[in-house]
TrEMBL record:
Biased composition (Basic and acidic residues): 59-73
Pfam families associated with the record: DUF2188
Protein name: Uncharacterized protein
InterPro entries: DUF2188
Region: Disordered, residue numbers: 1-32, 54-73
Naturally occurring in which organism (per UniProt): Croceibacterium atlanticum
Length: 73
């Protein structure tokens, strides 16, 4: 089962945390590093990447799930 990945502020920088997870799967110095790792995980799991700002609110989404309506052809 794929779990969405969240990029959230962390006391040591930025964390990649699976939805519903108690702990971060990884912590990075910069948000860009965390996004890169989170995107890699989301692609592998065909899930969604949710990027939070310093205030904790979601500021961007990046979907890597299966396309529900693939192009015909």
């Amino acid at each position: 089962m794929s779990r969405n990945q969240h990029i959230t502020p962390h006391p040591r920088g930025w964390a990649v945390q699976p939805a519903g997870g108690q702990r971060a799967s990884s912590v990075h110095r910069t948000q860009a590093e965390a996004i890169a790792r989170g995107r890699e995980i989301a692609r592998n799991q065909e899930s969604e990447l949710l990027i939070h700002g310093r205030n904790g609110r979601i500021r961007a989404r990046d979907s890597h799930g299966r396309d529900e309506f693939p192009p015909e052809g």
